[in-house]
Amino acid sequence: MSSPPALDFPSSQMDDVPMADGTEESFPNAPPPGNPLFLAATPSVNGTPSQRRFNPAESSPLRGATARRALGMSTPKPKTPLFIGGSSSPMAFPSSTPSRTPQRRAQIPSDRPQDSDPLDFPSTPVATPKNRRGDIHSSLVITPTASLRRTARSRTTNLNSDASNLDIPGSSGPNLSAPAAQSDEPDEIRAIWGTTVNLAETMKLFKDFFKGFKPKYRVSHDRSLGLQTRAFTSPEEGEVILYEGYLRRMRQTGETNLNLDVNNLLAFPPSKKLHSQLVKYPQEVIPAMDQVLKDMMLEIADMDQLAGMEGMQGDEAEEEIADIMGRIYKVRPFGLPSVNMRNLNPTDTDKLVCIKGLVIRATPVIPDMKVAFFRCLACSHTVQVEIDRGKIEEPHQCPRDVCASVGTMNLVHNRCEFADRQVIRLQETPDAVPDGQTPHTVSLSVYDELVDVSKPGDRIVVTGIYRSVPVRSNPRQRTLKSLFKTYLDVVHVKLGAGNALGFDKSTRPAGGDRVPGVGGLGDGGDEDEEREGRQSRKAELEQKLKEVSQRPDVYSYLARSLAPSIWEMEDVKKGILLQLFGGTNKSVAKGGGGGGPRYRGDINVLLVGDPGVSKSQILQYVHKIAPRGVYASGKGSSAVGLTAYVTRDPESKQLVLESGALVLSDGGVCCIDEFDKMSDATRSVLHEVMEQQTVSIAKAGIITTLNARTSILAAANPVGSKYDVNLPITRNIDLPPTLISRFDLLYLVLDQVDDALDRRLAQHLVGLYLEDAPTAEAQDIMPMQELSAYIDYARSKIHPVISEEAGNELVNAYVEMRNMGDDPRASEKRITATTRQLESLIRLSEAHARMRFSDFVEIEDVKEASRLMREAIRTSAMDPRTGKIDMGLLNTGTGSGQRKLREDMRKEILALLEGKSRGVKWAEALKLLGEQSSVKVDPVEFGEVIKGLENEGILKVTGEREKKTIRKIEA
Amino acid sequence: MSSNISDALQNPSKVLSDLYQQHSSLPLHTFPATVTAHFTHIFQSQHALEQIPALDLHHPPESFPPRSLVAFNCMVQDTSLSQDLYLGVKPDGSCGGWGIEDNPALPVADDKFDHANLREASVLWAVSIPGLSDWCHDAKAGAPAQPPVLHQPHKYPLLDVAHVGVQLKIYDENIARPLRTTDLLSFVGILTSEAISSNVIELSHPITVPTLHVLFATPIMRTIIPRSFPEPSILSDIDSLRTDLVDWVAEEGLAGDRLTAEWVLLSAISRTRSRQPPIMPLSLTVTKFPSCPNDPNAVPALYHVLSQIFPLVVTLPLALDTLNQGAFYPVSKDEDLHSGFLQQPKGSLVLITEGAVTEGKVLEQGAKNFLSIQEMMKSQTIDYVYPFSNFSFETDLNFLVTTEGKKSTFFKTDVNIPLRPTRSSGLVEELYKPIQSIRLPPQEKISRFRQLVGGSKIGNSVLAESLSQHVEDDFVRERATVKEETKQFSADDLIIRMVVARLVAHSLHRAEVTIDIWERAKELEKQRETRS
């Protein structure tokens, strides 16, 4: 029989141990009561398992046994260093009992637990820690066991301890093959009431788990479930005894909570059934685990002491062990698959469940009375009563036989013991709510270390015990009706992380507010997240996204999934798609000491076009799928914190709405509709945003610069609402050329009349809108959420690097683009591309690589990027006069053809003014010029030329309006 | 059978208990479905249903003795309340739930109950149907005797309007599960008064509210009164009936403007046909609609006219104050879902008047409010605001905006039409005349009007074979011809024209969109365009 000693406390022995033994034992060794006046009379709760009183099953032998076991909390006392350092010979005391379990695990079968007579229990120290977990309400209290052996062992013979040391690890070996070996042990007397669960066995299994679990079990378990596993860096990594390490760390850090991933229980073959026991009877099993944990803590401390580990020598070790004795250890299980909170039902009552949600409200800390302190008004006898199932029974009469006065027991508040408690309201997250339903909420009760761990707004995963308890009906109500309420007693909280909607880590003080506990959580960071059962969904999604990225037509597939209801405009969609992926942000680390200049990775797109070509629809769509998208337009904005004004338009005398401030989001896409109607002041901010990626704000005497890494998607209508194809684009859009040049891609979306195209469009629309049961065309498109997830994933995970070939290709593409303006016949050189275009090219190539989930920018990425650029340039930078592409149009507002024209006009004007010292009237000059010229003289051009001449100091313009006169300044 | 009915009417609790005893051998979880089936069966005939006393403003909850059987026609307002736990079997073996009181002699001891007998009941909040026109329910005369006691008035979409609000407890999961907010149903159950089931953590003094323990429920269609399309009884003279209807609306509500009246009707009978591609109800702005100088909040006569023929009509007089105060969309405050004006049942017609809008600042709340209306016009969804997250719900409301200017100050609607009254004197008085001054057509005529619009609202039509070619040709031609004008005929214009054509077909109870209907729609558009 490989039964380790821990299990080895047959009940008969315990029963045999007289109650007095335990107390007597502690007697001489106990410290003199520090405050005898009060303490002497005060029975320790530890010796008073009052909760048994209410248990209807007390009469049953099963119950009785557990009850007796429950009393033993006072027993750790003897193991305090006081005792150890004391004179009592340790030798004597193992020998006094044949069993290895000394009688110090005293059981006090008291049936009137609360009426401790001060005479009998004068010195039981109140300070002995007692595990009173608010989350458990357990009916079980279990005595530490191993620690006793430890004392004995360490003090007596090495042989003894060696034996037990050998014993214990040895047991885990065979267990692997024969997990249920102990199940037939006829020890039902300590079974959990109403079940066949043998508690002693449970404790032993758990101990075996602690001593035997190695990461390799988990890996093979995960593999068998088809989950992704992490490769060990070395074979030894899989072989470490995981929990021993955790326990050591707990001792070193003074942490008292151990987070236990229940999947590890499943993964370790001998402890498999612990998992289901834990889920079904958490109330009984968790305290048992707590106990085992404490035992193990002591055992390991002992082991380390023997091994002479650093920090565990001599007095230090004794101190450490004493500390451990004085602490309460808690096991916090987690890792169950979470269920939807609306699927919790009464059958889950008192079971361990796991739910996810959003904290919407948390009460302040509520002091929760754990032990009530009563004093008899007549004889000053004091009694402590423990909380039981959330209630404290007030003694109605003085328990002292001599006094026994009725109704004299008085609560003394400042002698009661309190624990922290907090009630949290947890709401379903939008993704968990069935379509069209409103979210549900549940109450959570959190205790002690878990109080204030989560804040409103956090997404958390909680593991807890589901409770349904009757509540007192309103006494004012006439009718009597039983009411119940449900809530969760939380044993473990995990703060949501990873996804975009998790809490912002930067808002929390560094390390200030961690979920308490060692083990699993907080140790491995992301890895834990992955491991934690939840991975299935996340991994599934990832898998799916990767599959999509492998499609040969992924580019066109994603492009057509973008705003599928919009007809054609493929290149525009592709450009916007790449904008959503974005290039990589770069900063020159070398030379600048890390603080070198930053190059933006954000791609800005401008759509210019006729009204009614679905520009707004595209913007709206992008706003919906883009991370942190903001939509603004001349009509208003979706941004929060926005105000607007209703004013009377001075011209039309109509009430119109004027939008207020533009709100930008750092790291998002800002969609600006009716860009041309935006006020100059607002637009001027964008200059800075689009190139420097910052916003400067001056308020209350403070000037500050904020990051605004925002890509801009803007849509503008041409001047006069219809695009005039005979004018250059700068004349069609009422935007400063400096701003236009900051857009990487500029698309002209023109509403061109074309019979064939129109007919196809009409067909498409008729099919869509006039058929009776309109069905979205059964085309292969990606749903919006998925597209959003895809982009999100790519943006956060993929950071492509430009490969060498791609670099060369970029150079070629740039040179080619610059040469586009080369016309051997032209006397002057047009500017077709500038370095700005090169930067755009790089960003677009990166975005394209990102879109394919590729870690490198390759030639094909550059090719597509340059194709897109060329397309965009072709439509936007074409000089209508010459039909040639000229980036100068966008960069300076004038194309080379126009510049030539102006030069001619300038000459003519000067010739006109020659000899006319009194000057020429503006209108007349214009007229004269028109008569001379073969082409129509554009008044705007004329004005520009005059302005130029004026600036040069050659001309002077005087007068206003009709009286405006141009005069040459005589040198 | 009739004794069954009278038993159920007189003592529903006893019927329930007896039913439980008969079925006590069956598993407990099947009992709620048994109850639903049993009571549905008893009241299966229309006649029997009508015998159940109605819970409404005229018969407020206080007027019924406890545990009466009542029927409540209502709109579900809130489905996010915590579920109620009850003991399915009392300690004495009798039926639990449905608000049946405990036997005081056998109180449920704190832990002496079997968790296996605990059952869940869904708790909802329901309110009288907002905007329900008088003619839809038994017009039994006049205003209620005394002002009703308002329970939880913040859970009703309309401010300061008398209504009945009731807490529903639904035991049969099959009834509760499909329920959504703004659904219209008639719940039949046992009326009691109970503490409010609150999401609030600890309520020291629970409020008592009327509570209906639901036995069974029947859905109410969005036309409130069943309609058919096409309606055979009006088909014979549908053209003249439609003309009469347009004339009457124009005469009484729009100072004789027949074209506007026709557009108003077409807009009002539209509905969401598809969300992908989006085919939403046609929103309409009547521009150049004078405001009432004496009382900017005056309700236009158009509202009274429309509520005579449409079952669900509400009006929203927009002003900066109303816009900036309070949310138009439902908001969850302290885990209690407060209603907002826009929480209306599907099929409602919303008349927004901008007459009271003045110059001034629109605050954040105001901006959110008009944006939520705009969003509803465009995509027929509304966001309920919960802490840290918004939940989007589908709606289906028709929007009609009246404004003084050339276009609405706040909203972009599908169609704008300027009002051209046929008379100029006393125009404002005419447009804002009180309900008493509206001349109603004979009862028989008006009920035919209602049949016409009700049927149109649920209409379905198919495309005539030849039409699609015709539409395509039209489109190509039109784009080629109107080149010189500033605005080109665009795809969006075509979409609206197609929607209008379908509505014209529906308004004529025609199940097919033919070329002549297409031409008629075009004509309507042309007339409208020449005005602006």
Automatic annotation (TrEMBL), chain A:
<dbReference type="InterPro" id="IPR031327">
    <property type="entry name" value="MCM"/>
</dbReference>
<comment type="subunit">
    <text>Component of the MCM2-7 complex.</text>
</comment>
<dbReference type="InterPro" id="IPR012340">
    <property type="entry name" value="NA-bd_OB-fold"/>
</dbReference>
<dbReference type="InterPro" id="IPR027925">
    <property type="entry name" value="MCM_N"/>
</dbReference>
<keyword id="KW-0067">ATP-binding</keyword>
<comment type="function">
    <text>Acts as component of the MCM2-7 complex (MCM complex) which is the replicative helicase essential for 'once per cell cycle' DNA replication initiation and elongation in eukaryotic cells. The active ATPase sites in the MCM2-7 ring are formed through the interaction surfaces of two neighboring subunits such that a critical structure of a conserved arginine finger motif is provided in trans relative to the ATP-binding site of the Walker A box of the adjacent subunit. The six ATPase active sites, however, are likely to contribute differentially to the complex helicase activity.</text>
</comment>
<feature type="compositionally biased region" description="Low complexity">
    <location>
        <begin position="145"/>
        <end position="160"/>
    </location>
</feature>
<keyword id="KW-0539">Nucleus</keyword>
<dbReference type="Pfam" id="PF17855">
    <property type="entry name" value="MCM_lid"/>
</dbReference>
<feature type="compositionally biased region" description="Basic and acidic residues">
    <location>
        <begin position="531"/>
        <end position="545"/>
    </location>
</feature>
<protein>
    <recommendedName>
        <fullName>DNA replication licensing factor MCM4</fullName>
        <ecNumber>3.6.4.12</ecNumber>
    </recommendedName>
</protein>
<dbReference type="GO" id="GO:0003697">
    <property type="term" value="F:single-stranded DNA binding"/>
</dbReference>
<dbReference type="Pfam" id="PF14551">
    <property type="entry name" value="MCM_N"/>
</dbReference>
<keyword id="KW-0238">DNA-binding</keyword>
<dbReference type="InterPro" id="IPR001208">
    <property type="entry name" value="MCM_dom"/>
</dbReference>
<dbReference type="GO" id="GO:0005656">
    <property type="term" value="C:nuclear pre-replicative complex"/>
</dbReference>
<dbReference type="InterPro" id="IPR041562">
    <property type="entry name" value="MCM_lid"/>
</dbReference>
<feature type="compositionally biased region" description="Polar residues">
    <location>
        <begin position="86"/>
        <end position="101"/>
    </location>
</feature>
<comment type="similarity">
    <text>Belongs to the MCM family.</text>
</comment>
<keyword id="KW-0547">Nucleotide-binding</keyword>
<dbReference type="GO" id="GO:0006279">
    <property type="term" value="P:premeiotic DNA replication"/>
</dbReference>
<dbReference type="GO" id="GO:1902975">
    <property type="term" value="P:mitotic DNA replication initiation"/>
</dbReference>
TrEMBL record, chain B:
<dbReference type="GO" id="GO:0003682">
    <property type="term" value="F:chromatin binding"/>
</dbReference>
<dbReference type="Pfam" id="PF09739">
    <property type="entry name" value="MCM_bind"/>
</dbReference>
<dbReference type="InterPro" id="IPR019140">
    <property type="entry name" value="MCM_complex-bd"/>
</dbReference>
<keyword id="KW-0539">Nucleus</keyword>
<protein>
    <recommendedName>
        <fullName>Mini-chromosome maintenance complex-binding protein</fullName>
    </recommendedName>
</protein>
<dbReference type="GO" id="GO:0006261">
    <property type="term" value="P:DNA-templated DNA replication"/>
</dbReference>
<dbReference type="GO" id="GO:0005634">
    <property type="term" value="C:nucleus"/>
</dbReference>
